[in-house]
Amino acid sequence: MQSLWMVLASLLFACMGVCVKLAAATHSAVEIVFYRSFLSLILMYALVRLRGVSLRTPHWRWQVSRGVVGFSALFAYFWA
Predict the structure, then answer these.
(1) Residue 78 near residue 33 (C-beta atoms within 8 A)
(2) CA angle 3, 50, 75 (to 5 degrees)
(3) Contact at 8 Å (CB) between 50 and 43?
(4) 22-76 pLDDT tens trace
(5) In the 8-state DSSP scheme, what is residue 52?
(6) Residue 58, H or E segment
(7) Range of the domain at 19
């Protein structure tokens, strides 16, 4: 079953690459990263609220730095 999840993840990653290539014709890399991140934020927030988990963390500086590094990495990937 785990190998099927890997195949699905690869397929979805390839679909994301195709969507980024199509969107790059009309939008900048920063806009594409923003829209992808915003949709992910909405989905994750809904999932967290459904499960009743708190968003409060004692390690907020690590969370912010992780967000900055993640944004930079995604921007570099989409820009390339």
Answers:
(1) yes
(2) 60
(3) no
(4) 999 999 989 999 998 899 999 999 999 999 988 888 999 999 999 899 989 988 9
(5) T
(6) none
(7) 2-79
The domain tally of the chain equals 1
Region at 52 (left for phi over 0; alpha for psi -120 to 50; beta for the rest): left
Average pLDDT over residues 16-21: 90
Q: How far is residue 57's CA from residue 27's CA, in Å, rounded to a whole number? A: 34
10/75 Cα distance (integer angstroms): 20
Minimal CA–CA distance to 19: which of 6, 7, 35, 8?
A: 35
Model pTM score = 0.73
- DSSP codes joined into one string, 29-44: HHHHHHHHHHHHHHHH
Specify whether the CB–CB gap between 72 and 37 falls below 8 A.
no
72-77: long-range contacts, CB 8 A cutoff, minimum separation 24 = 74/33, 74/36, 74/37, 75/29, 75/30, 75/33
